[in-house]
Design brief:
With about 170 residues, the chain is α/β, with parallel strands linked by helices. It has one domain: Rossmann fold (3-Layer(aba) Sandwich). It contains six helices and nine strands. The protein has a nine-stranded mixed beta sheet with strand order 5-6-4-3-2-7-8-1-9, with helices on both faces. The chain starts with 5 loop residues before the first strand and ends with a helix.
C-alpha cells in the first residue's frame, strides 16, 4: 500500500456515519482538498432503513442504490434489493476518481456485503492497489477488525463518531 492512507469513520448501524462523513467532506472541500467518490444516503420508514441512494460527491448526481421492496432487475441480498445500475455507476465513479487522482476518494460504506465479496469489494480492492490514492471510508464498529484483516489494511486511522467533524477533518488534512 506504500504511502496510501485509509481513514475510517466508524459507528453503529444507523448512528450517523454518513452524516459525519458528509460534514468531514464539506470541511475538507473548504480547505480546497479534491474529493471524489460517493455517499449512500439512507431513507427511514417505521424506524428502520428502507432504502439508500448513492450520491456522487463531485457532481451531486444520484441514483437509487437499494430498497426493501423488489424492483425490476434488482438483486436480492439480505433484506434489501440492489439496483444493478447503481452498483455499475458507483464502480464507474470510483474508476474515474482513481484516474483523476483526487486528494481523497470516499466510499460510504465498506461493510458486510464487501466481506462477502459483493457490492464495492472489487472496486475497493483496486483502489487499495493504487498507492497515490488516500481513502476515506465508513465501517460499522462491529466489523472493523474483519475489514482490516480481509483487506490487509495497514496505514489506517479510525475515527469514532464521538470525535467532532472539524477534528476529523483537521487530522485528515494534516
Amino acid at each position: 500500500m506504500a504511502s496510501q492512507k485509509v481513514f475510517i469513520i466508524s459507528g453503529a448501524q444507523g448512528e450517523g456515519k454518513t452524516t459525519r462523513l458528509k460534514e468531514v467532506v464539506r470541511l475538507l472541500q473548504q480547505k480546497r482538498k479534491s474529493i471524489a467518490g460517493f455517499v449512500a444516503e439512507g431513507s427511514w420508514e417505521n424506524n428502520k432503513r428502507s432504502a439508500f441512494t448513492l450520491v456522487n460527491i463531485e457532481s451531486g448526481e444520484s441514483i437509487p442504490l437499494c430498497g426493501s421492496t423488489a424492483k425490476n432487475n434488482w438483486l436480492k441480498s439480505g433484506r434489501f434489493y440492489f439496483n444493478r445500475d447503481a452498483i455499475a455507476k458507483g464502480e464507474k465513479w470510483l474508476r474515474e476518481s482513481s484516474t483523476s487522482q483526487p486528494g481523497f476518494i470516499v466510499i460510504d460504506e465498506i461493510g458486510i456485503f464487501e466481506l462477502d465479496n459483493k457490492i464495492w469489494h472489487a472496486a475497493f480492492q483496486k483502489l487499495l492497489k493504487q498507492s497515490n490514492c488516500n481513502l476515506i471510508i465508513t465501517v460499522r464498529n462491529s466489523i472493523i477488525e474483519r475489514i482490516v484483516q480481509k483487506y490487509n489494511l495497514e496505514n489506517i486511522e479510525v475515527f469514532s463518531l464521538k470525535i467532532a467533524a472539524n477534528e476529523i477533518a483537521e487530522k485528515i488534512y494534516n
